[in-house]
Amino acid sequence: MNARPAENVATATVIGHFINGVDVADNNRPLPVTNPATGAVTKHVAMATKGTVADAIAAADAAFPAWRNTPPAKRAKVMFRFKQLLEEHADEIVAALTEEHGKVLDDAMGEFVRGVEVVDYACGVAELLKGEHSRNVGPGIDSWSEFQPLGVVAGITPFNFPAMVPMWMFPMAIACGNTFVLKPSEKDPSAPMLVAHLLKEAGLPDGVYNVVNGDKEAVDTLLEDPRVQAISFVGSTPIAEYIYATGTRNGKRVQALGGAKNHAVIMPDADIDNAVSALMGAAYGSCGERCMAISVAVCVGDETADEVVGKLKTELQDLKVGNGTDTCNDMGPLVTQAHHEKVRGYVDLGVNEGAELVIDGRGLVVNGHEDGFFLGACLFDKVTPDMRIYQEEIFGPVLCVVRAESQEQAMQLIDNHEYGNGTCIFTRDGEAARYFADNIQVGMVGINVPLPVPAALHSFGGWKRSLFGDLFAYGPDSVRFYTRRKTITQRWPSGGVREKAQFSFPTNR
Ligand code: NAD
Question: What amino acid positions are annotated as catalytic residues?
Answer without folding.
Answer: 291
